[in-house]
Amino acid sequence: MLKPSVLHKLKTIVGHEHLSTVPEELVAYSYDATQREALPWAVARPASANEISQLLVLANQERFPVVPRGAGTGMSGGSVPTEGGVVLSLERMRRILEIDEENMVAVVEPGVVTGDLQREVESRGLFYPPDPASHQFCTMGGNIAECAGGLRAVKYGVTKDYVLGLEVVLPTGDVITTGARTAKSVAGYDLTKLMVGSEGMLGVVTKIIVKLLPLPESVRTQAAFFLSVDDAARAASKILTSRILPRALEFIDHAALRAVEHYLKEDLSDGAMAMLIVEVDGPEETTARENSKIADIMAACGATRVSKADSASEREQLWKVRRSISPALYTIKPKKVNEDIVVPRSKIPDILREVGDIAKRYGILIVNFGHAGDGNIHTNIMIDESELQKAEEAAKEIFAAALRMGGSISGEHGIGIAKAPYLPMELKPDALAAMRRIKRALDPNNILNPGKMFSPGD
Ligand code: MLT
Ligand code: ZN
């Protein structure tokens, strides 16, 4: 709990109206998309790096936890204040500060919604590719913290591939800048890359410089339905080895399809067992050619129906289906344990088979969907509260399978609290120890987002 004198100082730093201890408000800042929750002691909504710096200096003096928060759409519990303390919401810092069209960079504050930045740059013929499924709600600061990926990663990479530089308030309150506004810069250690994906544990990002690309001339999207998961997985592999690089190649299994159909109250698939959505971009004639070639490949792999989205609204409809999966899954069971393993993409058919076997062995429903193009499959173990233990054992087996195939336990959701117990399955003790040393060097009093990523005793 915070002493009244500390609360008073916090109010002086951020302004009375931007510091709350009202229980109803605290609840709103207590959870993320994992269904995990813990109440903070207070919520602060600062408006500048200077205020954040003062707040962190106070946190070091008084030793209270500070948990940075974007929109709370995270999938690993990274912004859940598990040890109480002050939630530092970046919601007031939501300005697009600059779009430099000549040098193709944008400078934004952390509270900017990713979709808003995308729309703004697209209106100027530019393109910010990273697009987590939650892009209409998630914020750039959260994307930096988790190194968000998304649907277009197969062609365009993830958040870390676009961040050129940052302004960061370190846990001790020092304000630093990292990187540069240029494509090249090798001046010193790459602190930008260190911060991206550090899950709000090494600093609070207050300004973000991202690179932009020219907006592709055309985009074409199509969907195909299959009678088996195996056919769809084979089609995905075939597309990826045909010397075409789609900008999205998404896989949806039958349980996810049924859940979305129920959720959207639409029959989309005539009972199909799997669906692929494939999108290409580039010059008109190239996308037309690639689109046809992909349709032929999918038909040859047994697609029962291939539908090309001819208009913007048809495209939007396809992506609505895909982006509705996460909420739709709650219509199947009250709880989901959502993992986001990644494997080399040639192993997609193998991992899907193995996950199927694990589901059978545990007598548990596992729903698979996700970014087949980059090997990042979301395996959602659907359970009632009483099945949690079984789900955790199944998850461990899924992680082991992904690691055996040369993959990783998390492609884009991060470790947070959800995957902290499993991190030692992937990282050797020396690597974990090096990470802990970095954390201690930057945050000697462990005030910034404590209790995340590492389990006690790692
Ligand atoms: C997605 O791809 O839809 C997101 O990563 C969210 C999820 O896994 O549920
Ligand atoms: Zn995803």
Describe the structure.
35% of the residues lie in helices and 21% in strands. By secondary structure, it is α+β, with helices and mostly antiparallel strands. Strand 5 (96-100) and strand 6 (105-108) form a beta hairpin. The model has no long low-confidence stretch (mean pLDDT 96). It binds D-malate (MLT) and zinc ion. Residues 75, 133, 325-326, 338, 340, 370, 378 line the site of D-malate.
Low-pLDDT sequence parts: none
How many whole angstroms does the radius of gyration measure? 22 Å
Tell me what portion of residues adopts beta-strand conformation.
15-25%
Number of strands: 18
Span of the ends, CA to CA: 28 Å
Outline the biggest β-sheet: 7 strands, antiparallel
Structural class by SSE content: alpha+beta
Q: Which ligands accompany this protein?
A: D-malate, zinc ion
Write the layout of secondary structure elements.
Layout lengths: L3 H11 L4 E2 L2 H6 L13 E3 L4 H14 L3 E4 L16 E4 L6 E5 L4 E4 L5 H9 L3 E2 L12 H7 L6 H4 L6 E7 L5 E5 L11 H5 L8 E8 L1 E2 L3 E9 L2 H12 L7 E6 H11 L9 E9 L1 H17 L4 E5 L2 H12 L1 H4 L6 E5 L8 H15 L2 E7 L4 E8 L4 H17 L18 H4 L2 H14 L16
Parallel strand pairs: 2-4, 3-4
Antiparallel strand pairs: 1-2, 5-6, 6-10, 7-11, 8-9, 8-10, 12-14, 12-15, 13-14, 13-17, 16-18, 17-18
Bound molecules: D-malate (MLT) and zinc ion (ZN).
The site of D-malate has 8 residues, from helix 12.
